Prior knowledge:
This protein is 42% helix and 16% strand. The longest helix has 18 residues. It is of the alpha/beta class. The radius of gyration is 18 Å and the shape is globular.
Amino acid sequence: MKSLSISSVVSCHICPVRFMLEQNIKNNCESENYTLAKQISYHLGEELMPGEIWDEIMLINPKISSESNELFNSWIRKCILSSWPRASQNDIRVSSEKLGIYGTIDRFFDSKPHIGLTRLSPAPENGVYKADRVRSACYSLCAKESLKIDADEVILEYIPSGISRICTVSPRDRRDALSAIRIAKKIISGKTPVKNKNLPCENCYLKDKCSKGPVKLSELL
């Protein structure tokens, strides 16, 4: 069985049916919001120069919309108000052969907390999102196996809010991550997923595709 991306594990934690439906979606184009957040993240820890960063974004995606420029200006103004550590490296791929998962650390620091993850969503009022706790647990487990470091604290960098939050990975977070991995592998093997009853389906971007009820992955491929 092929390895699972950490993002797909998080998706399965959110809703197994959503995870299954996403297996049939092939999208090689990154969203404009991702481009904005990612490029800002490369400059965190140094003086943020909006014009310079926007020029880079235009080189990456010359067709980016004017609405994204307004969003960029809003995000960068907030990020300028906060203090950010400077990363020693960006985009470090990590994996766990034992668990069969992989991902890319957005920003890596030589001292603790070692892992910084760029987030496209606004920060919650307090703490971090449950999904980001599962994400952090997966990266912590991968870092221990790939990089031979203990990374039980992970920095979640919510670019739209211009703030960061530290997630201290707990046993429950690891347990939720392992459960999502196990369920995802069963779905890929052909098991019919069950909707997450705690999740309001109205907010899901795939709600129209699963309105008829869950079907096996093999029926979609």
